[in-house]
Write a sequence for this structure.
């Protein structure tokens, strides 16, 4: 009889007063879209029509009440929506009007502090979304009353109005305004010393007041790069920027100015590979590129935010309901290089389309912990947390491709060996001999999804049973026994 030991995942992490990039490298992040995650009340029947683009009632108290649900999946950090005061209807948090006042739709200062304290008691980190690029105004650009925006209450703090029409023009991206006559977004003159200093004063106080461990910075490509070193230094915590661009050389260059970025180049590659079932050479190429510190590569891909869903893009199941494909994509997200990020609702297999469709409320699901993907995510997070507890080099060991075909890829990241496929649920049952996995001759190897055991041949390879297009993850049995980890014999 075999069974899996589910470890206390939070025990692998400790919270420091100022969380560094090295501290964040080992975290696994659950993205909370605050207004749509959990109501303060325990009821789960309140309607939320995403097409109305209005508040649905999620709060910080609601988030705190569901931390067991989040931690049950093995997450060691959460990322919440921007917390500042908004224009009416700014449910997402990106239309701020006052940096020094909180969004009372989400709760009070005490509510936010209580959430932060609860996270700390669990050994978890708090990442807060911030918006350094712009403020918000409920109308056309020629109606903006700058005196109503705080603390930047004069037109001199903003770029003169011009519509942002061409994202490929860097100057236009940095100085022109996002928005329309429903909600305009006055573009802050972040290259101005007074504005930069004001932003630094604000972020320093925000981090201190609410015990924030990390920042997700919105619309980074719309801000001059030189702004970020001073801003992040003032914050004194880990900074991850949103560079929503699939060009690796363009996106990764921003890591010279901040700790990390959301890995959009890899996001597009993962989705092409597992949603569209493109050739595995796409994933291999982008994985190799991301870890290349030279031209086109990232400075440190072990700090990049790896994801396949968020609040701005269609959900993975919107394109395919094949459960095997999404399980492979999630396995890559969590077990490859980088800091894994899972967006709320992935565990419930939500299938919303592009914004606003991907911003569904979670409470109608009843926070079901018995769904296939809730357990899948929890188990793979367990693997990652277990691996870093057993090997001090696991997190910085760069994942490398040992072999690949058109529909299958084999990878090794230190003590974790992964086999992924995009055959989908129609994939048949067959034996696959590994290549380059580096086991010892005669060593017993355990595949931890099935708990099947294999013996490595004289070349250190094993013949793994594949079935139904599902992922496979291999560990040395000796490591599992030493760590009381997964698939340990009950006699142990």
């Amino acid at each position: 009889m075999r069974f899996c030991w589910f470890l206390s995942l939070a025990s692998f992490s400790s919270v420091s007063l100022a969380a560094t990039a090295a501290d964040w490298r080992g975290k696994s992040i659950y993205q909370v879209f605050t207004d749509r995650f959990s109501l303060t009340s325990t009821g789960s029947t309140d309607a939320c029509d995403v097409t109305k683009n209005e508040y649905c009632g999620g709060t910080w108290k609601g988030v705190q009440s569901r931390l067991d649900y989040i931690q049950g999946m093995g997450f060691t950090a959460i990322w919440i929506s921007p917390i500042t005061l908004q224009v009416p209807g700014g449910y997402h948090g990106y239309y701020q009007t006052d940096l020094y006042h909180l969004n009372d739709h989400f709760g009070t200062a005490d509510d936010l502090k209580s959430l932060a304290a609860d996270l700390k008691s669990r050994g978890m980190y708090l990442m807060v979304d911030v918006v350094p690029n712009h403020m918000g105004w409920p109308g056309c650009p020629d109606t903006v009353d700058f005196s109503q925006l705080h603390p930047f209450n004069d037109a001199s703090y903003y770029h003169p109005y011009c519509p942002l029409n061409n994202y490929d023009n860097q100057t236009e991206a940095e100085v022109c305004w996002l928005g329309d006559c429903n909600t305009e977004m006055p573009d802050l003159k972040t290259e101005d010393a007074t504005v930069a200093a004001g932003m630094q004063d604000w972020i320093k106080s925000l981090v201190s007041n609410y015990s924030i461990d990390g920042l997700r910075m919105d619309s980074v490509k719309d801000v001059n790069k030189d702004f970020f070193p001073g801003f992040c230094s003032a914050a004194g915590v880990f900074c991850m920027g949103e560079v929503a661009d699939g060009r690796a050389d363009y996106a990764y260059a921003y890591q010279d100015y901040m700790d990390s970025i959301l890995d959009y180049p890899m996001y597009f590659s993962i989705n092409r590979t597992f949603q569209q079932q493109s050739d595995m050479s796409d994933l291999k190429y982008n994985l190799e590129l991301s870890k290349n510190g030279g031209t086109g590569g990232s400075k440190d891909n072990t700090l990049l935010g790896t994801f396949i869903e968020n609040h701005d893009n269609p959900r993975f199941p919107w394109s395919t309901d094949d459960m095997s494909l999404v399980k492979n994509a999630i396995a890559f997200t969590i077990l490859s290089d980088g800091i894994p990020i899972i967006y709320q609702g992935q565990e419930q297999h939500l299938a919303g389309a592009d914004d606003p469709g991907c911003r569904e409320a979670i409470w109608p699901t009843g926070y079901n912990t018995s769904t296939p993907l809730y357990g899948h995510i929890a188990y793979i997070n367990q693997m990652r947390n277990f691996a870093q507890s057993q090997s001090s080099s696991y997190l910085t060991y760069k994942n490398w491709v040992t072999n690949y075909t058109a529909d299958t890829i084999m990878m090794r990241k230190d003590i974790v060996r992964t086999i992924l496929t995009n055959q989908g649920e129609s994939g048949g049952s067959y034996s696959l001999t590994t290549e380059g996995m580096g086991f010892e001759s005669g060593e017993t190897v355990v595949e931890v999804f099935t708990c099947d055991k294999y013996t490595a041949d004289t070349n250190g390879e094993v013949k793994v049973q594949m079935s139904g297009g599902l992922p496979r993850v291999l560990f040395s049995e000796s490591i599992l026994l030493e760590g009381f980890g997964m698939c340990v014999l009950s006699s142990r």
